[in-house]
Amino acid sequence: MPSVVVWITSTVTACRKWAKSRISPRHLRETHHQATEKRLLRRTNLVGMPPDTHIPRRPLLSSNSLWRMKSYLRPYVLRLSLIWLMAIVGIGAAISLPLVIERVIDGPVAHGDTGALLPLGLLAAGVGALEALLIFLRRWAQVKPVLGLETAIRNDLYAHLQRLPMGFHGDWQSGQLLSRATTDLSTIRRFLGFGMLFLVMNILQLITVTVLLLNKYWPLGLLVLASAVPIIWTSLRFEKRYIKVSRQVQDEQGDLATLVEESAIGIRTIKAFGRRHHVYDRYDDAALKVYGTSMDKVRLSARFFSFLEIIPNITLALVLLLGALAVGTGALTLGALVAFTTLMLQLVWPIASLGYILAMAQEAMTSADRVMEVLDTVPAIKDGATDTIDEPRGHLRLEGVGFRFADSDEPVLHDVWLDVRPGETVAVVGATGAGKTTLTALVPRLIDPTSGRVTIDGHDIRDLDLATLRSIVATAFEEPTLFSMSVRENLMLGRADATEEELAAAVETAQAQFVYDLPWGLDTRIGEQGLSLSGGQRQRLALARAVLSKPRILVLDDTLSALDVETEALVEEALRHVLRDATGIVVAHRASTVLLADKVALLRGGTITHVGRHDELLAKVPEYRELLAQDADLDDAAEGALR
Amino acid sequence: MTTTTQEAKPSASSWRGVASEDQDELSEKVSVLLRARSRRLLGDLLRPYRKKIALLVTIIVISNAAALSIPLLVAIGIDEGIPPIRKGGDPTVLLTVVGVILAAAVTQALTRQAFLRLAGTIGQSILLELRRRVFDHFQRLSLSFHEKYTSGRVISRLTSDVESIAELVQSGFDALVKALLTMLGTAVLLLAMDLHLGLVALVPIPLLLLFTRWFRRQSTLVYRRTRETVALVIVHFVESMTGIRAVQAFRRERRNQEIFEQLNDDYRGANARSMQIGATFMTGVKLIGNLTIGGVLLYGGYLAIHGEVLIGVLTAFLLYLRQFYEPMQEVSQFYNTLQSAGAALEKLSGVLEEQPGVPEPREPEALPGGRARGKVRFDGVTFAYVAEMPILPRLDLTIPAGQSVALVGATGAGKTTLAKLISRFYDPTDGRVLLDGVDLRGLDEQTLRQAVVMVTQENFLFSGTVADNIRFGRPDATDHQVREAAKAIGAHEFISALPDGYDTEVGKRGGRMSAGQRQLVAFARAFLADPAVLILDEATSSLDVPSERLVQRALRTILADRTALIIAHRLSTVEIADRVLVMDRGRIVEDGPPAQLIAASGRFAGLHQAWLDSLSQS
User: Fold this and answer.
1) What are the sequence ranges of the domains in chain A?
2) Range A8-43+61-375 classified under CATH 3.40.50.1950
3) What superfamily would CATH give domain B368-617?
4) One Pfam match, by short name (chain B) (predicted)?
């Protein structure tokens, strides 16, 4: 029955395709989600950020991080075992389908037995349906644990990042963190969800088939085994180089994106100097580089994939030749030869895909390390929680406070002594870089001093519960951070329980009545993804936010700098009322703002050199005069004078 | 994301608030069928490769034929090669077949490699061409376009959109072609072997097409949903991290976590749906395939028993059938890639059809004497962004070469518009702007930009060294000239104090330098460019008091022998000008030397008095 051979041989080709459709280099390439994430990264203002290819160093047992993530799979243990079971049974069904077909042809068809045709034919259809059903069930069952793992880790990562202090966030770009929360987690998801399953299934299949082959006819078995060697070797080597060149393409695309970003944002400068060609040449160099590296990638894959196809085909020809000769001498039966070729071809893809899966595992481990690197960072600012203040009065003292960044020798602040009595307001004045913002960040413990201490009502703030401390202190920053949320949500950032009246009062204090005129009033989305506001409007919202949280200590970090003269006067008037009750720290550049304060502290060279009333300092301290006796702002004056 | 329907109910997502979304980005018509302009662009890009594409098609057909022939050859080897050996040991037939298989294998490998390389080359070349074309076009488009279009969208056109096309070129195209050809080849083979049985085997195709249509629709919806949800996750994540100071200072962590988990869960839901649809489709195709095999087995077996079909044919049928259905799954995987590449191409072709609002002259005129002297004249100039609301009603103004003119006026008086007209960022709606008697519209870009340079408040520094940034003003300047320019401006001192002096890499967007230092570099750049006309549009407003004093000293050097238009922010700047123009609603209401205007009792005098008052107040 020689023609039986024909179909078995080609069944095997089909098997090969089967395996290939499951595990292919595509699984290593980007999935659609990842591509989408990347695109969005660009859209969310992280454009041009070089891809974060940082790999944390972990000398010992690099699988450790990945292994530690197993606890996230714990809720799904039962479901996972079912999935594994279905996978194994599914493979069995897939292998037995050709066997059933063989029986049909060897049996009923060969012998003209119509009666046996129907049950066997139905059996074949049944096995086929079972195979499809098992895959279907397995893949549906996989959804929950795979996504559950990813979602849970992402939630934990986010929670942890919110706990980590400013110092940490200063060192890490948000893009780096984002790539851990998205790309790395997807990589881990793909390996734990799919890669691992295939790894085990492939190894199982490999062992079974190898044993079968050697058992059937060992000389040919050895030949097949020998042919596996170059495939494994090449695919491992290919993976390494492929990953390397892929990373390089990614890096170069990052460089290209930086140039794009510059050309878009700096378009006025480029136009002003007529440097279109200059900029184009720079871009073109980078684009050519991307082209060159992409071509390397193309050539590499072209070589590898054609190699991967030629080896099995050559082996097939050799097996046919030697096998046929063996059949001629009677060393091998025809049926055995047919089975042999079938089995042999079943080996090709599990072997070749081992390379991919191992590379995938490696990537997942690196990703796990990167995620764990963040999760393992211990918050440098610890919640005190040993001390509470029941009725805070707002007596703020800085006692010999110093601050130095970890990577710098020069302290930003040193020996700062300041006493602000309850209800008193101090203006902090100093040149750019004098350390004003650092000083304001110390009060709500966004950073901790490296020497000395800060106290409120006599309590070291490091002993206080962070939530308590931050309800006592509210800050309006110079660069107001607005989130892509409704105005209301932005204002109620510090006090989710504020009433409408309180909200209205805060809006009025900050002279932010413009919010009622926005298209959807307080429900209008503002921020990056919503309506854009002017600098002055943003500052007024930040101020309203700080006022709304009714703090005992109000810190205003140059909050009024972007307001025009008229609005500033109104805001200052309203602030006077607020500051009458609260303790205030006001960073100021303009004389008018300084006048809000009861006294002024002059910050020079990282320490407070003078404390006194505005007119005293103006009269006595030349540096102070230098800082505050500035020019009139013509635009503002013009608004008034010309109308 | 239709905002109206979403926001009607105050749901769990009411924290987001309401906004009118950028329609262009979100309501993109997702369609694989390309619109005319996309097709034009695609045709345009492919045209140079016509011959290569023809070659590519030949190669892929040969490659596929070779691949499809191997199973058949093995069968022949066994059917025809073994019997002679058994009989008399004559291996000729066997050897011939093995030889042909080897040849087919080699042919297949070689053609496959050639295909991958050729397809890769064409794809990458097109990508390069597209990048170049779009980038160059953006650079040609006038400022009015860029102000409307925003940099964010320019960036996403050139990065994410080009990348979605790259993705198709890199991974989708090869698999797509291969899958389609395999299916086609197999179908032809089946019908050729036995028309009757072949037709039976292909019966499920309509069902398959319906199923594919279902999948495509679902997948479009889910794809969009995934993108929307992941966008929200990313935005919330990034904003929380960049605004961590406010988050922590206002104890926002808990509420943030609630929101994030909600968003993350929505994303999970969208992802789950996407995985489920994928699983359903793939296994559905598999089921149809397997059932067809069962059916063909039964029907073919029946025919074979009655001698109407050869067993060899039946068996070959069953085997080729298996590989007929697999490619369907491949194609489905690339549907999204195809879809987003189509949308990207649509947007890019839209950009490429934009025309520059300030076109280059066909036949450039030359400046008298070959070099600009700097006489600027506005001749009956009217300008309006919107037709009925002219910013400049009708302006006649002559600035003699070498004069420094300060422009003063309230916001919206038209100062910046005047500056933009002189630097030809815009063309006047009516009238002419002349440089040394030549209409600006008649000057080519090179000549104009050499003669007129504008420095704005926005002091953009490009990545690269400080020296590179100064040299941007004149790319062929020597190191010495760069230093001289910096010295003239008073920037040499701080630049020398930087870690690597002039070779210090400026951080991202000049991050490591203060605003004042960046502005000094921008001034040095303009000084090095040495234009006949220099426009300073509020160029000193971002400086603090000490740096501004430094710049003002430098300004005297820069402005000497040069026509200058200074949009002034502070009165001290005005004082160094030869002439002051006070503008109000697009008209010049006062004109004269500063001292003369102060002596008179006009608006400028009033302004000056107000300034004096404010000084004494503090």
Assistant:
1) 8-43+61-375, 396-479+553-642
2) no
3) P-loop containing nucleotide triphosphate hydrolases (3.40.50.300)
4) ABC_membrane
User: B154–A178: do the CB atoms touch at under 8 Å?
Assistant: no
Contact of B584 with B409, CB cutoff 8 Å: yes
Q: Is B66 on the interface with A (CB under 8 A)?
A: no
Phi, psi angle pair for A128, to nearest 5°: -60, -45
Between chain A and chain B, how many beta carbons pairs sit less than 8 Å apart?
A: 598
Provide the pLDDT for residue A47: 36
- Burial of A399 (C-beta count, 10 Å sphere; 0-12/13-18/19+): middle
Q: How many CA atoms lie within 13 A of B518 on its CB side?
A: 23
Mean pLDDT for A70-78 is: 89
CA-based Rg of chain A, rounded to a whole angstrom? 35
| CB of B311 closer than 8 Å to CB of A110 | yes
**What angle do helix axes A276-329 and B92-140 make, rounded to 10 degrees?**
170
Q: Which of A359, A321, A319, A358 is closest to A339 using CA atoms?
A: A319
The rounded distance, in Å, linking the Cα atoms of A89 and A131 is 8
Fold of A396-479+553-642: Rossmann fold (3.40.50)
Q: Which of A482, A483, A461 is nearest to A473 (CA)?
A: A461
Q: Order across the sheet with A473-476: list the strands.
A: A473-476, A553-557, A583-587, A425-429, A599-604, A607-612
Residue B23 has pLDDT above 80, yes or no: no
Range B336-362 burial, b when 16+ CB lie within 10 A, else e = bbbbbbbbbbbbbbebbeeeeebeeee
| Closest CA of chain A from B114, distance in Å | 8
Q: Is the CB of residue B524 less than 8 Å from the CB of residue B489?
A: yes
Q: Which of A8-17, A63-72, A267-276, B263-272 has the lowest mean pLDDT?
A: A8-17
Cα gap A559→A409, rounded to integer Å? 30
Strands (E), B356-481: 376-386, 389-399, 404-409, 430-435, 438-439, 452-456, 464-465
As a whole number of angstroms, the distance between CA B93 and CA B82 comes to: 8
CATH of B35-194+337-357 among 3.30.200.20, 1.20.1560.10, 3.40.50.300, 3.40.50.11780: 1.20.1560.10
Residues of B in contact with A140 (CB under 8 A): 276, 279
Q: How far is residue A630's CA from residue A616's CA, in Å, rounded to a whole number?
A: 18
Structure tokens at B235: 């935005």
Which residue from A minimizes the CA distance to B82?
Answer: A324
> Is A178 within 8 Å of B234 when comparing Cβ atoms?
yes
pLDDT at res. A456:
92
**Section A245-261 average pLDDT:** 83
Tokens of A487: 């105005």
**Distance between terminal CA atoms of chain B?**
53
Please report, for residues A145, A546, B69, B413, the alpha-carbon distance to residue A504 in angstroms, rounded to integers and kept in the order given: 47, 13, 80, 35
What is the value of pTM for the model shown? 0.75
